[in-house]
Design brief:
CATH architecture of the largest domain: Alpha-Beta Complex
Structural class: alpha/beta
Order of helices and strands: EEEHEEEEHEHEHEHEHEHEHEHE
Shape: globular
Strand content: 25-35%
Bound molecules: NADP nicotinamide-adenine-dinucleotide phosphate
CATH class of the largest domain: Alpha Beta
CATH superfamily of the largest domain: Medium-chain alcohol dehydrogenases, catalytic domain
């Protein structure tokens, strides 16, 4: 049964130049969709704003299909089933999946996962128990190959992925130093148990600051950001260090490529292993990752933060806020 005949949606109306602007998006009303044959009608409760969406609205193909101008924005979302024409799902159940930024959406039942609200708050399906959590868990453990006693530096450390990486590294016995953009975030990282934290806006020169916090050098680098901080970290890496290249947010809004320092001499002489990844490569193992992260959460070893924007109309602002570091932990929009 359709619960409403009106719904709102957020469309992309221009390819952003540099930093996206709210006027690159349009919030408008549209007729609420019907419940699809064999599918579900879902009322969106949370939508996720993620840095990778910048690549999807850049007007060119990356590792995910672009969202063309005129289309409705989409990302990971959580919602409540309000009508079902599928025997597997009942009205009132909560589901997660990739869908359009709309109040109401018709979804294919085969493309959503049921969420157990009794296990953890449903919003965690977009954060610590969702894609960012899996990025932290698999990207760090599989590519940085951490050993107890080793030193990890993680950039973007107060965000959804970075805050999880640092805490996992502490669980595994590493010395952990995080990099973030404000004094409040530095204090937050220390409250999570990080051994050291750098404010990249003020703690310069980076090389000296990091060297003081990493007296035994750096064995693992989980890079969410790129740019000059990465140049400085590479200079301090130990022989046979491992670098997981997760994100390069410092350059997502650049109009021309910034090659910066050439890293290959450091990679050669220190015999570094540097590997980029897209988390979907471990998609088949997400249940294992979720189980481990949920167990650490339950044991109180992992904590998470959310920055929640209210209302569908705030989605463009929430997305743009990622590039100004407005969020601590996972940035979400609650409808
Ligand atoms: N490879 C994959 O499969 C995969 C999957 C998920 C995410 N990622 C990447 O992982 C990174 C973190 O993603 P997330 O979802 O956890 O986002 P997030 O860290 O929660 O949010 C983005 C953060 O980046 C920082 N930032 C923004 N512009 C910056 C700049 N110019 N220089 C330095 N820091 C900047 C901001 O924090 P400050 O206040 O500290 O500046 C901001 O809070 C992103 O690069 C994303 O693209 C990759």
């Amino acid at each position: 049964m359709i619960m409403t005949d009106q719904s709102r949606r957020v469309r992309l109306v221009a390819v952003p130049e540099g930093l996206p602007k709210e006027t690159d998006f349009l919030v408008e009303e549209h007729a609420a969709p019907e419940c699809p044959l064999d599918g579900l009608l879902v009322k969106t409760r949370y939508l996720s704003v993620d840095p990778y969406l910048r690549g999807r609205i850049a007007g060119k193909k990356t590792y995910v299909d672009p969202i063309p101008v005129g289309n409705v924005m989409e990302s990971g979302c959580v919602g409540e089933v309000v009508a079902s024409r599928n025997g597997e799902f009942r009205v009132g159940e909560m589901v997660a999946g990739l869908w359009a930024w709309q109040d109401y959406v018709g979804v294919d039942a085969g493309k959503v996962q049921r969420i157990d609200a009794a296990e953890a708050p449903v919003s965690t399906a977009l954060g610590i128990l969702g894609m960012p959590g899996m990025t932290a868990y698999f990207g760090f453990t599989e590519l940085c190959l951490p050993k107890a006693g080793e030193t990890l530096v993680v950039s973007g450390a107060a965000g959804a992925v970075g805050s999880a990486v640092g805490q996992i590294a502490k669980i595994l016995g590493c010395h952990v130093v995080g990099v973030a953009g404000t004094a409040e975030k530095v204090a937050y990282l220390k409250s999570l148990g990080f051994d050291g934290a750098v404010n990249y806006r003020t703690d310069k020169p980076y090389g000296e600051t990091l060297a003081a916090l990493c007296p035994n050098g750096i064995d693992c680098y989980f890079d969410n950001v790129g740019g000059e901080m990465t140049d400085a970290v590479l200079g301090l890496m130990n022989t046979r260090g491992r670098v997981a290249v997760c994100g390069q947010i410092a350059s997502y809004n650049d109009r021309k490529e910034d090659i910066g320092h050439r890293p290959y001499t450091d990679i050669l002489v220190k015999q570094l292993r540097v590997e980029g990844f897209i988390v979907s490569r471990w998609g088949a193992r997400f249940p294992e990752g979720r189980k481990q992260m949920a167990a650490w959460l339950k044991a109180g070893l992992l904590r998470y933060e959310e920055t929640v924007y209210k209302g569908l109309e705030s989605a463009p602002r929430a997305f743009i806020g990622l590039f100004a570091g407005e969020n601590t932990g996972k940035a979400l929009v609650e409808l």
